[in-house]
Amino acid sequence: MSHKARHRDHVRRRLKRRAEPGAAPGSLTVDPQAPQPVIRLLAYNAEKFIERDIADPQELRNFVGHWHVCWVDVDGLGDAHILEQIAAIFHLHPLAMEDVVNVHQRAKVDTFGERTFIVTHMFGLTDHLASEQVSLFLGPDFLITFQERPGDCLDPVRERIRKQETRVREADAGYLAYAILDAVTDHYFPILEGYGERLEALEDRIIALPDRAVVAEIHDMKRELLYVRRAVWPQREALNMLVRDEIPHISAETRLYLRDCYDHCVRIIDLLETYREVCSDLMDLYLSSISNRMNEIMKVLTVISTIFLPITFIAGLYGMNFDPGASPLNMPELKWRYGYPFALGLMALSSIGLVLFYVRRGWIGKGSDDRRAPPSSRESP
Amino acid sequence: MSHKARHRDHVRRRLKRRAEPGAAPGSLTVDPQAPQPVIRLLAYNAEKFIERDIADPQELRNFVGHWHVCWVDVDGLGDAHILEQIAAIFHLHPLAMEDVVNVHQRAKVDTFGERTFIVTHMFGLTDHLASEQVSLFLGPDFLITFQERPGDCLDPVRERIRKQETRVREADAGYLAYAILDAVTDHYFPILEGYGERLEALEDRIIALPDRAVVAEIHDMKRELLYVRRAVWPQREALNMLVRDEIPHISAETRLYLRDCYDHCVRIIDLLETYREVCSDLMDLYLSSISNRMNEIMKVLTVISTIFLPITFIAGLYGMNFDPGASPLNMPELKWRYGYPFALGLMALSSIGLVLFYVRRGWIGKGSDDRRAPPSSRESP
Amino acid sequence: MSHKARHRDHVRRRLKRRAEPGAAPGSLTVDPQAPQPVIRLLAYNAEKFIERDIADPQELRNFVGHWHVCWVDVDGLGDAHILEQIAAIFHLHPLAMEDVVNVHQRAKVDTFGERTFIVTHMFGLTDHLASEQVSLFLGPDFLITFQERPGDCLDPVRERIRKQETRVREADAGYLAYAILDAVTDHYFPILEGYGERLEALEDRIIALPDRAVVAEIHDMKRELLYVRRAVWPQREALNMLVRDEIPHISAETRLYLRDCYDHCVRIIDLLETYREVCSDLMDLYLSSISNRMNEIMKVLTVISTIFLPITFIAGLYGMNFDPGASPLNMPELKWRYGYPFALGLMALSSIGLVLFYVRRGWIGKGSDDRRAPPSSRESP
Amino acid sequence: MSHKARHRDHVRRRLKRRAEPGAAPGSLTVDPQAPQPVIRLLAYNAEKFIERDIADPQELRNFVGHWHVCWVDVDGLGDAHILEQIAAIFHLHPLAMEDVVNVHQRAKVDTFGERTFIVTHMFGLTDHLASEQVSLFLGPDFLITFQERPGDCLDPVRERIRKQETRVREADAGYLAYAILDAVTDHYFPILEGYGERLEALEDRIIALPDRAVVAEIHDMKRELLYVRRAVWPQREALNMLVRDEIPHISAETRLYLRDCYDHCVRIIDLLETYREVCSDLMDLYLSSISNRMNEIMKVLTVISTIFLPITFIAGLYGMNFDPGASPLNMPELKWRYGYPFALGLMALSSIGLVLFYVRRGWIGKGSDDRRAPPSSRESP
Amino acid sequence: MSHKARHRDHVRRRLKRRAEPGAAPGSLTVDPQAPQPVIRLLAYNAEKFIERDIADPQELRNFVGHWHVCWVDVDGLGDAHILEQIAAIFHLHPLAMEDVVNVHQRAKVDTFGERTFIVTHMFGLTDHLASEQVSLFLGPDFLITFQERPGDCLDPVRERIRKQETRVREADAGYLAYAILDAVTDHYFPILEGYGERLEALEDRIIALPDRAVVAEIHDMKRELLYVRRAVWPQREALNMLVRDEIPHISAETRLYLRDCYDHCVRIIDLLETYREVCSDLMDLYLSSISNRMNEIMKVLTVISTIFLPITFIAGLYGMNFDPGASPLNMPELKWRYGYPFALGLMALSSIGLVLFYVRRGWIGKGSDDRRAPPSSRESP
Hints:
Five copies of one chain form a homopentamer.
Chain A (H helix, E strand, L loop, with lengths): L1 H14 L22 E7 L4 E6 L14 E7 L4 H11 L3 H8 L6 E5 L2 E11 L3 E10 L3 E6 L7 H8 L4 H4 L2 H14 L1 H21 L4 H32 L7 H67 L20 H23 L4 H4 L12
Parallel strand pairs in A: 3-7
Antiparallel strand pairs in A: 1-2, 1-3, 4-5, 5-6, 6-7
């Protein structure tokens, strides 16, 4: 159950607002448990690039304006002072900075004058489903990304920047923003593939032998899909806005690429909705299978009971006191040497036969195990 | 059950219209049980502020026009005369005043000439879920708020006004309106967090051992979520209107802040819809768990019945009248000194064993308690 | 069941079209069972008013044009000739007149040149839920209302006209149309409050002891809500059209009032949808309660059966033929003086105990009553 | 079951496309089983009219252009040559002609230059629910209608043309198109009334004594409503397009009439959706009634079983071997002259009593009939 | 189950993305298992046509520009080099080429300067439901189609090109694009007809004797319909865009034809949605039939049990120890010569009777077969 517990914990922690309701807007109330910010600079133009870890935000002033594109990547949101310094250097709006720190924003695109502020969500599947808010500020020659913690799915983008003569090296900051959004969006696919496989496994289990744990698993999966869906739907709107509207620093050429990214996002939503429908169908399949099993159980009970009740009555009626004197056919077993053991044997045979029958059907043994949580197939992968 | 009873009472009282159908529009029919109005004035500019309790509405004329912003806060709607005086001083439209008094309006933004009329709903979670209508009138240099009763969530806003050099002190009445709407909107979050926790607790209970009270609780929660939702959806439309349309006395700068507030409102709706879906899923989980338990009960019945029916028949068949003379194996127990107590002992053992088995499964004891309401986990918090 | 039967009859009668499919449009085919028209005139200006019953429609020519506003109220649609005369006097379009007579129109606003034609539905809750179509024709200085039968909810409006210095006396015919629409719309509230109370009563019944009649009542209520909803939704569209579009003889001031009326209509729809959802939730609650009861019944059966089956087998096994000679412990009861009565007494005790147990649970007595319809709580109010 | 079988057959036959996928568009592939076309001409102006059966399409050239309006009514689509001749005379677009022949089009309005092409669906309820595609071509002074087979609901329209001084005689071809669309639309009402009555009958049956056939009937009705709905929804769009857009040969006056027709169509959809919801509610009602019956059955089983099991055990315990010598109270029945017949009589009484009880409840007799289809109430009307 | 396994395999393989998330956009990462491209050229004008297999893409330069229309059909996507050569010759955008290779795109229409890029999906029903992405590039005088593998439904189009004086020979490349889209769209009809027939067969099976395999089959069908639906909905949007927007190289005349194709697509969606609703209805029908069977089973159990329990008790009560001396009526059977065989015979008769009864009802025999998958009716067609 630890997968689920950790996912829950993750969700709960992110839901909690840092600022009190009614606090002044734009106030940076930092989560004390958040990791300390680590700043990494990647500045490049078509000819060369530099990559540097920045200790003091003020250093950034040496680079911005001198390179074609500066990518300032901040991992960790644990120090209000550092964040405020960066905001001051790049003229980032306080309302946007508040959204950077309160990591539970819906994906969106807001423009504050010459700065475009983009919020997106990156999903990672380590031992539990966890999401991380990535906030982007796009300026004329810089891109600033704020992430909740170190570790991301943007290494392929960095790799492409390091190589010469790639499109990203020749393009502007808007294209870099696209490249990051595209990497984040495409990262949903492997997660959804994982769900697709789990759904198929579940379907096979339900058809083979549905146990109680199936319901809990469908329920968990529905919840997680709901969680992913809540992240993806606004992403689609945000991308659509980037494609349709005139957003500062997004060129027409980049818009063509964003349209491609938007298509991917729509496909993700398609898949998500399909999986949600499949979840519901599996629940129906499970319920009908439960009903079927009930029918089966009742049939066994009815068949055996109704066969034995009348004949037990007949046996009771005559008390089986037939007069052995009237005929040698009248209950000779009673006089047999092994009459009683024979009767006991018959009883043992009937009981063992039925117990074996029930064990084979999984009614005994499995049945009592049902109450304990089965080893969830979800724990290991 | 008192939580629910009080919530119901609250809803019913608010639903009841004061004015008869067909009454002239704009007539102020006051609820006689409503609290008497208490007027509090907060007037400020960038340099100083005053805070005063107003006994006679006519006093207000001394302040309005002399300060940068006047915030007139009226708590309690129990005196038509006082309300009409205020309406006369500030030129408030009778139709809007009628909506102030009939506290069951949907959140909305209406403009009456130079006055902007905003209705919103503030939720409080004391011992039961209660909502309060807050009506705002926005003029060029004043803001009037009408609340149903004393006590609100606006103290942080007042605190910010009392401090110097806060943004609210420097901004206009439109910004004050935003600050109040923001405080009201953000106040939904702790309430929703409470629901989130109750849902998690419910889920754990259903998976552990679902009892009958679970259904009633899911039902109550669905109802309350429906109630909150009915309040929030129009709030979103109203905020959207404030962001998009040209509303008098709302500056472009304030509109930027309102956009942020609108985002929060959308997130609240997201959460609400998610919780509603989780409620439905929990109901499904519960129902499938009931079906599973039924299956389990039927399996026990079927297994035990069908094992004992055939052997009881065999025992009945031979009447167990085996001839002890034919063989010493034929029912020697009947001649034992403690034969009868031995048989009685066997019976007692079998009965006690089964009773213990059922008690452990919760079929006996718990089963009969089901009919009484269990100590609801909702009462205490 | 008479409430329901009458409601059904009402619906069926209204559904039946008078004109054959394919008949020429605009033909006035009057329902022969409809009441004869009664014409009442209310003519007024700011200074005075007259109120008169009109026998011959031609009399109307003496008033129209001479008063600020003439309200011609026609109750009953049973005479094609009279209706045609009125249509001729006021130049009403034949298509609109056809809609007046075929009383099953959706609420709507149509303009025919200088005449505005408005259809709305008035609900009354006498002994059954009945609706009545009210058709309004609005001209420059007159308003004509056609109702299906005498008796309506417009008396408060008439009262306001009779008083001097009310707004309605000073305003134009468009304002009168608003006043009537507002009275009709507000009249939905008491009906919905009635449904709210029935729903609460049902919920209490389901939680206390759900009987079969609950389902039928939920079903009836759903149907009636569906019926009301079908009337209200188009009303909302119609009101919206009156607020938004440029409709002849509706002034900007009146539009402000109509916006208020539109808000009420939206609130009614809100309530309706909420009640419909509550209905569905109650059905779920009922079904889960049925399942719970089934579980309970099965548990009793299983517990008692499985306890007695094994011990009955043991008793049968030994035939209880223990040899009393072998020991005084072997079945001394058989030799007791009151052995047989003692056994019979035991049996009676066990039977009576169980019967009492079932009566207390409501399985006996109530159970057989279930098949008859219980005294519906809906009949009396 | 023949009603259903014929309806199915009807649907299947219409679904089958005549042209192969990939065939050139506009190719007239005629269904060989379709009836031969019968052409009927109705030409009229305000003064006179002629009505004529046309054998050779070329004859039509003598009329078109010489009369105010020519209505060419073609019943039967079984001869590609004739259809092509008509298309040539009136310049009908090949794509439209293809749609005429492939009688499974959605209702729609297409304009091909000066020709307006309208598709609608006419429903008839003979012994099964059957629909027929009616295709209209509207030109400046002619209207051509193509129907699948002879027999339609347009006779009232013809009747109105034959009478002088009717509006249709004075109006243009666009008005004739309206008259036909109106007749077709209004023809849905009696069909829907039929469904309304069937639904009420079903509801009564479910509340009285639900049998298995009810489900199949609800299912059939749902399917048929789905089928009607699939025909009506596009009709609404088509009518809306005729009302809103500038369509050639549809005058402003006619548009007013079409708005009325559109209102009727919306009402039909309202009714349809209501009936579909009622169907779902009836299914719920049925299912809850099944659950209730199950509860009832289980209660009877539980009450009787649990009463007799303990006392049977007690009887078994003592083997009823009480010593008659110890007391005259000890089982005197065993010595009665009619002891055995008395016991047999008791048994017979108990059995007959229970059998009667079950017959009265409909568990015996009816129960076994359930498996056969009951005489469907739908066959006869 | 192989049908399903293969369909699953097909879906899974197509879902897997070739390019890693974060890879540079427009990179052609070819699936190594994809078939090698086979290029076929069809060049034509109104007078003549040539048809040629192309080994080296560079050959294409000899044709393009010299013919009225060149149709380059590429079957198989297994060689990045060849695809890139084609892209270079016709100036196809890298982003579009990436979509050609990643065969899981939603149907869409994108314009890249003078090239129109169309994605559609072709369904084939061989032994399992398989879809194939068809990508079209439309230029001024050429059309390039990329298919996943050889074999398609476009032969009728080729046939029409080979014939002289067909419309396609005289029209431009846009019309050819339409012809292909139309063939692909119309190819959905036979597939849907197949589903319609399967649904009817299922309905008959459920009404006759529902077995467990029915649920699995409904579930499979729902899934496949979901799969087809996911392909068709975007197709509709794409076609709508082609009809409404100004797309390069699509003439007004062709737009008329595309409107027809769009209508077909809407009809396909209509059918799909209908089938999906029928699927849900069938599931309900099945579940209610399961409940009915449960009721029936319980009735049999209850009737037989409750009849025999009381009489068995009576038999047990008297132990049937009636004194034969008191009367000759007292249990004479016990003294009969064949008393015991008679009793055994009675028992055998009762047992065999019940077993036959259950076999006839399908509770024995069929019942145990339920657990194995029945020979699916879907395998063979």
